[in-house]
Amino acid sequence: MPSNQIDLEAFSTLQRALNEYIENLNESRAVLIVAADAFAQAMGSDPIAQKKIARLSDALNRLDDAARMAEAIVASARRKQLAAEQIVEEA
Known about the structure:
Layout: H1 8-43, H2 47-90
Helix pairs in contact: 1-2
C-alpha cells in the first residue's frame, strides 16, 4: 500500500484487539477480587496476609489503570477512524 493511503480496516482491527484486551483485564480483575476476598476471609487478621491483600489491591488498581488507558486508545482510534473516513469521502 502506498504511504499516502489510509488503511481504514486497521482502525477497526486495533479497536477489536483493544476491546478484547479490556475484556481480558476485566476478567482478570474479577478473578483477583474473588481471590482477595477468599484470602482475606481465611487469613485476614494475619499481618503478612494484610500485606499480601494490599498488594492484590495495588494490582487491581493497576488493572483498572490499564483498562482506562486502553479505553482511551479505543476512543482515540475511533475518532481518527471517523476523521480518516471523512477524508476518504471528501477525496
